[in-house]
């Protein structure tokens, strides 16, 4: 049973006239008549009483009309669901992110995406960059948010945000009185930092920066979480060089100061290269992320 036959039947039932019904569905009258006859042959009972003045439905036709309308409505809904899925408007999206983005970037992206795509379920997973790459390869997440570089050739990426490093200092520190620092100003300060194995790219970038200024940071305490590191700064244990948006985590006893010629850290979205653009939902997510961070592409 073809949908066009149902459309023709509904038009005829509502117009009660072959000529008007044919015009409504953009076919000639003979084609409409043949379509109704084919439908009746398939159903096996007469659906229409044909008179010289108008068309009437048989009892079977009246019953069939309700089902035909429901079938056409369901078909239209099914088509719309497919189109919405192709636009990335429905479904599920699993997003991996490095922990620091929870303090800047991620909230803006997720809030905007949920507002624009309320029918997409978003699952967030806090993972290191290495864990995200493995999760992407294994299909455990759809898109990752991390820092460059992305080493896996099976993954594709798009820049989202660039942020400079800043100095986090104890509020009573002598350098906190300055509005801007040079990296050499920190040469003799104790540092707190991540263990290298957790954030090797970040760690190595800071070390190269300091080495270029003629010193190697004296890391006196390590911690794996940013709030812990900033708490250590507040306690006067050492200074820290976070990405600028970590300054949104307002912690008593910590001040942030820009540093001249600070390296810029690039935050990227990453997805499986085998899926062009990451698929419709990922493409929708990337578009929203660009809008939220002011980096539309």
From TrEMBL:
<keyword id="KW-0804">Transcription</keyword>
<dbReference type="Pfam" id="PF03466">
    <property type="entry name" value="LysR_substrate"/>
</dbReference>
<dbReference type="Pfam" id="PF00126">
    <property type="entry name" value="HTH_1"/>
</dbReference>
<keyword id="KW-0805">Transcription regulation</keyword>
<protein>
    <submittedName>
        <fullName>DNA-binding transcriptional LysR family regulator</fullName>
    </submittedName>
</protein>
<feature type="domain" description="HTH lysR-type">
    <location>
        <begin position="1"/>
        <end position="58"/>
    </location>
</feature>
<dbReference type="GO" id="GO:0003677">
    <property type="term" value="F:DNA binding"/>
</dbReference>
<dbReference type="InterPro" id="IPR036390">
    <property type="entry name" value="WH_DNA-bd_sf"/>
</dbReference>
<dbReference type="InterPro" id="IPR005119">
    <property type="entry name" value="LysR_subst-bd"/>
</dbReference>
<keyword id="KW-0238">DNA-binding</keyword>
<dbReference type="InterPro" id="IPR000847">
    <property type="entry name" value="LysR_HTH_N"/>
</dbReference>
<dbReference type="GO" id="GO:0003700">
    <property type="term" value="F:DNA-binding transcription factor activity"/>
</dbReference>
<dbReference type="InterPro" id="IPR036388">
    <property type="entry name" value="WH-like_DNA-bd_sf"/>
</dbReference>
<comment type="similarity">
    <text>Belongs to the LysR transcriptional regulatory family.</text>
</comment>
<dbReference type="GO" id="GO:0032993">
    <property type="term" value="C:protein-DNA complex"/>
</dbReference>
């Amino acid at each position: 049973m073809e949908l066009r036959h149902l459309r023709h039947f509904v038009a005829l039932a509502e117009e009660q006239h072959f000529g008007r019904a044919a015009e409504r569905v953009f076919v000639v009258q003979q084609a409409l008549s043949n379509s109704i006859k084919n439908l009746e042959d398939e159903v096996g009972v007469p659906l229409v009483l044909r008179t010289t003045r108008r068309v009437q439905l048989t009892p079977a036709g009246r019953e069939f009309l309700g089902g035909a309308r429901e079938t056409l409505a369901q078909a239209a809904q099914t088509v719309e669901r497919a189109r919405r899925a192709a636009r990335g408007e429905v479904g599920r999206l699993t997003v991996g992110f490095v922990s620091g983005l929870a303090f800047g970037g991620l909230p803006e992206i997720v809030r905007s995406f949920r507002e624009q795509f309320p029918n997409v379920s978003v699952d967030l997973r806090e993972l290191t960059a290495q864990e995200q790459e493995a999760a992407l390869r294994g299909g455990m997440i759809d898109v990752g948010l991390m820092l460059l570089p992305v080493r896996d050739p099976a993954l594709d990426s798009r820049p989202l945000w660039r942020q400079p490093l800043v100095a986090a200092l104890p509020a009573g520190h002598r350098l906190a009185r300055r509005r801007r620092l040079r990296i050499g100003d920190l040469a003799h300060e104790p540092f707190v930092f991540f263990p290298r194995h957790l954030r090797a790219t970040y760690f190595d970038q800071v070390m190269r920066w300091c080495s270029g200024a003629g010193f190697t940071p004296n890391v006196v305490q390590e911690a794996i979480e940013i709030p812990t590191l900033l708490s250590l700064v507040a306690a006067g244990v050492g200074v820290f060089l976070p990405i600028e948006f970590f300054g949104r985590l307002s912690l008593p006893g910590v001040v942030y100061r820009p540093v001249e010629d600070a390296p810029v850290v690039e935050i990227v979205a990453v997805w499986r290269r085998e899926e062009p653009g990451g698929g419709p939902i990922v493409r929708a997510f990337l578009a929203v992320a660009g809008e939220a961070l002011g980096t539309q592409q």
